[in-house]
Write a structure and sequence with these properties.
Layout lengths: L2 H29 L7 H20 L9 H25 L2
Length: 94
């Protein structure tokens, strides 16, 4: 498989996860206390659960679970930036 194609797939997955985390954050702000009963919030939570679980694996235990979506967003953002840098590097090479 081509390396550029693989980087594009990773970038696309990072974008979907990032936008889902952003959407979950917006619903978190607007839904209030009853967000766990909000259908859209539950869907975003299902979509973002792999990224949040990976963030939990990579962070020390003293980081509270409440902060894991923010850590997951930062992780996804760095993966996205790294893939863009990789794509630019591969496109510039002769």
């Amino acid at each position: 498989m081509d390396v550029v194609f693989l980087l594009k797939i990773i970038k696309t997955v990072a974008e979907v996860a990032g936008f889902a985390l952003l959407g979950q954050g917006l619903v978190y702000l607007f839904a209030g206390i009853n967000r766990e009963q909000n259908f859209v919030y539950v869907i975003f939570r299902i979509i973002t659960s792999p990224a949040v679980k990976l963030a939990r694996l990579l962070t020390p235990r003293f980081v509270r679970d409440h902060h894991m979506p923010l850590v997951a967003f930062a992780l996804v953002l760095w993966v996205w930036v790294a893939t863009i840098i990789g794509l630019v590097y591969l496109r510039i090479q002769p």
